Amino acid sequence: MSGDYVIGLDLGTTSAKAVIFHLNGKVICEAECLITTYYPESGWVEQDPNEIESFAIKAIKDAMGKAKIEKDEVQAIGISCAMHSLICVDKEGKSLSKALIWSDGRSSQQVDRFSEKERQDLFLKTGVPIHPMTPFTKLVWMKETEFEPYKKAAYFMSVKEYLLFHWFGERVIDYSMASATGLFNPSTLGWDEAVMEVAQVDANQLSQVVPPTYILRGLEKKVADGMGLLSDIPVVIGAADGQLANLGIGAILPGEVAITVGTSGAVRQFSKGVRINEKRETFCYAFTDEYCIIGGPSNNGGIALQWLKELFNSQDSYSDFIEKAGNVAPGAEGIIFHPYINGERAPIWNQRATGNFSGLSITHKQEHFIRAVLEGITFNLYQIERALCRLAGEPSKIYVNGGLARSNLWLQMLADIFGKEVYVAETHHSSAWGAAWTALVAIGKRNSFDEIKDNIQLGEPIVPNEDTHRIYQEIYKEYMKRSRV
């Protein structure tokens, strides 16, 4: 391979996206295919793994067509993937079930039946709280309900594993995707026998665990042709989207925290070694044999704003809708919003949690509610970050990406609530760039993960207003006091 390009393939919950980068990180072009999500029963959330595979191939082909570059100019492909998907697969690699994705809640009853001691013991082994998002609890549901695909399955896989098995005939999974299953021990970097026993799965039904720089070679010719690439292109397994978003935005050193807010949200920080929060507020997922990522995901980011916009039947654009909050002082004149309208993961890990407004009066108008929702989303992120502080100390720098990061009003609110400078990357392709950079490290084109900092363009930081920060500290105390969970 003699070209100057690398591809980041980002397999998200909403789309399969291929981004072609120059080796210095400049985006050449992107292509995206939206993934269909199915809701066959209440609480069930599924996607078709074969559709995702065909979309992944198409996204790369479309990106190559837009870029107008030759096949041999692409150095490698790196893969980012959303966590917590689960597919039952037969020996030939055929899917026996749809992909159950992170938001699938069918195992809620099984989760409720775990005792406090069982929750603590399992969490201390895996670093993953007991929650319906995890493949572990989904497997327990399959076992207890005698789910037919589970009984017939030779293998259990994530979406990424499924694609790689089809493309290369290898059953491999990277450390971070393995960690996200809830079946993996980040301290031993292996599948945990005791946890597998609870789900009644065997290690040979799970894939071989490999580091994020693992290279697969010999891409199926039909697949390579469909992508418009050479079949000998190195494909690097990469990691989960959360880890790679941190890497791709440059939040990789001690004290550097990444916050992502799109439909959902997350707060994450790299850590040397395993650090487990015994209160079970946050997760700890392996990334390499040396580093883990600690953090917490929230179900309730932009989805809460979308809900509010629909509730008011607002015809404004999202940016105009959000900007109305600028007409209201911090604290929304007494309204506090707890944003658990979609259940919640971190920091409370309660799928049945419900959102609420408190402090309402007859003088409150639409803009007060918008301000309260933005503040509630951000206070929830701040609560997650406070839990991380107890493990890793105060953050020195906040990096932000995701759809909400396009709002200057919200970015200032975030800086004011956290009391830290906030940095925003100029590209919103952080996970894809993290995947592409991992591929470059794997094939020897870059020396280390840390060097990525020299290849990320950041704008000027958003500086907190200290007076507003002090006001928000008092409002946060009230937010915690009024919490019903």
From TrEMBL:
| Taxon lineage | Bacteria, Bacillati, Bacillota, Bacilli, Bacillales
Domain Carbohydrate kinase FGGY C-terminal, by residue range, is: 258-442
Q: What is this protein called?
A: Gluconokinase
Per the UniProt record, the source organism is Lederbergia citrisecunda
One MF annotation (Gene Ontology) recorded for this entry: phosphotransferase activity, alcohol group as acceptor
A Gene Ontology biological process noted in the UniProt record is: carbohydrate metabolic process
Q: Which family does it belong to?
A: Belongs to the FGGY kinase family.
Q: What are the entry keywords? A: Kinase, Transferase
Pfam families (alphabetical) = FGGY_C, FGGY_N
What InterPro entries does the database record attribute to this sequence?
Answer: ATPase_NBD, Carb_kinase_FGGY, Carb_kinase_FGGY_CS, FGGY_C, FGGY_Carb_Kinase, FGGY_N
Where in this chain does the record put each Carbohydrate kinase FGGY N-terminal domain?
5-248
PANTHER family xref list: GLUCONOKINASE, SUGAR KINASE
